[in-house]
Amino acid sequence: MNVRIISGLYGGRIIDAPDRRSTHAMSERARNALFNSIASELEGARVLDAFAGSGSLGIEALSRGASYTVFIEKDRIAAKIIQKNLDLLKIQDGKVIKTTVSNWLETSDEELFDVILADPPYHDPQFSTVTRLFGLLKPGALMVLSHSGKGEVPSKTGVVVVDNRSYGNLNLTLYRRDA
Q1: pTM for the full model?
Q2: Positive/negative CA dihedral, 127, 131, 137, 141
Q3: Which CATH class is domain 2-177?
């Protein structure tokens, strides 16, 4: 399977993606709308692509001006594909970590992030893990949660929902940490 980077430095480039059994790629329409809406957040940003899958969200962020992206992906094949894509595009401002987001949170000493892109599996949204990601947001920083359905989404004191968008069965909830 292939995914096209939409805009920016790597716009139009095609990257590999794992087959749909192990990951779900966000549609190009939804990615384009999302990244157009958060474009001003990306210039020079440190980005976390949690549940990275193909890495298309983190690579799109780098393409549009992010300074560095950490990709967290538990699937061995998907993590290898992300690294292959970074190598293909000659991206050195990214790091792929093969583990679960939950395990990474237990052991990470990463700095805080300007933008967190969280796209957990729809069949296992891992909202308790997603809630822990809020703690990695810099003051005033943005987190985007991709999820199915319009049900309950995680919340935490000091982090507010600033937008909700729907694209078919995909829902995006945008959060901002209090400054």
Answers
A1: 0.94
A2: positive
A3: alpha beta
